[in-house]
Amino acid sequence: MLPISFNINYSDFTNNPYPVFAELRNSAPISFVPELDAILLTKHSDIFICEKNISVFSSVQPDGLMTKLMGQNMMRKDGEDHKAERRTIFPTVSPKTTQKVWKQKFVDHTKSILESLSDQDLIDVVNEFAKPVSAQALKSVTGLTNMTWQEMDRVSQGMIDGCANYIRDSNVEKNCYDCTRSIDNHIQERMEQGLGSDPSLLSVFASVNEKFETISANIKLAISGGQNEPRDAIAGTIATLLKNRQQLKKILDGEFNWLKAFEEYARWMSPIGMSPRRIAKDFSYKDFEFSENDRVFLMFGSANRDEDIFEKPNEFRLDRDVTQSISFGAGPHFCAGAWISKTLIAEVAIPMFFEKFPKIELQSEVEYSGWAFRGPKPFFVKV
To answer: How far apart are CA 33 and CA 37, in angstroms?
Structure first.
C-alpha cells in the first residue's frame, strides 16, 4: 500500500501546523504531501523506530537542499562517516568543555547585552536579547570571532530559509548562497590569521587537518541550527512563561527549574520541527511501501504533541514528564550541541533575563511561524 496523498495550504501550515499534524496523526500518520513533495511521518512511535533504521531512512541526501546549499556535513552522513566527524567535534561540545569553557563566555556576553538594555522601558525580546545572546555564543563556539553577531544571525537565518525552501523560491535560494559565501570568507580569514588551541569548532577541525570543504560544511551546520534554535527557544520560553504566570511563579518559588521550562517549551513548540531522510532502498513498513529515493520528513513537531504519548499535549505544563520528547532527535543524529544549548538557554540566558528584569510584563501578543523550524515573531515586554 502506498502512502495516501494529503493536501495542505502551505501558508496556513507555516502559520500553524498543529491542526494539520493532529489530523494526520489521527487519519493518515504516514502520508504523501504534494506541496512538500515528501512523505510525512507524524506519529511518535513511527519516528522513534524509523529514525534509528539508518540502512533505510538515510541521512545521506545528495540531492537534498542542505547538501546542495551547505555541502555534505555530518548531518548528511551515516554510519562510520558520521561517527568520525562527531568524534572530531566532541572536544568542542562535550559537557565538560561546555561547563569549563563556554558557560563563562555565555555569562559574560549575556551580562553585557543585558546592561545595554538597562535604560529601556520596552525591549524587543527576539531582536534585542535572544538574537545577540545566541549569536555571541555561537561566535565563541565556532571560532568565527571575526563575524559580527548581526552577520551571524543573518547567515543562519538565510541558511535556515534555504533548507526549508521546498517551494523553490529563487530569491530565498539566492540569499542562501550569499550567506554561505560570507561564512566561507570568514572561515578563510580566521584560518589565515592562525588558530590557537582553544576548543572551538574551527580549532578542533584544523587540528586534525580536515579539508576546507569538510570544515566549511560542518561550520555551516553548526551555524544553521546553533543560532535559530537557541534564539527561538530563549525568546519563546520567556514569552510562554510570561503568558503562564502561574507556571513562572512555580519556578521563582523553587518548585521547578529553568531547564524544566526549556525542555517543556522545546516539546510544546519544537524549534526544530522536522528532519528529512532519503529512502535508501525499497522497503515495507506497516504495510506501506516506500521506494528507493523517496523523500521522508520525520515531523518532530507532531511527535512531541502526540496524544498517545503526552496527556493534553497542546498545553504547556512544567509538571509534565518530557523524557519521551524528541526535540533533539532520537537516533544516531541526536543533536551534538544539546549540552551547549541547554547550558546557554536554561543556565544562563533565561535566568539572567528574569533576574535582571523581575517586574517584566508582556506588551504585545506573541505569534509563531514555521513548520520545519518554528519560533516567535518579534514581541515587546515592559521592564
So the answer is: 6
Long-range contacts of 59-67 (CB under 8 A, 24+ apart): 59/277, 59/278, 59/333, 60/278, 60/280, 61/276, 61/277, 61/278, 61/295, 64/276, 64/278, 64/295, 65/162, 65/163, 65/164, 65/165, 65/166, 66/163, 66/221, 66/224, 66/276
Q: What is the radius of gyration, based on Cα positions, of the chain?
A: 20
336-379 residue pLDDT tens: 788 999 999 999 999 999 999 999 999 988 999 999 999 999 99
Q: Where do the structural domains in the chain lie, given as residue ranges?
A: 4-382
What's the number of CA atoms in the CB half-sphere (13 Å) around residue 335?
23
Local confidence band at 83 (pLDDT 50, 70, 90 cut-offs): confident
Q: pLDDT category, 225, cuts 50, 70, 90? A: confident
Q: pLDDT-derived band of residue 72, with 50, 70 and 90 as boundaries?
A: confident
Query: The cell 524528541 sits on which residue?
Result: 326
CB 124 within 8 A of CB 232: no
CATH for 4-382 is 1.10.630.10
At residue 332, the 3 state secondary structure works out as coil
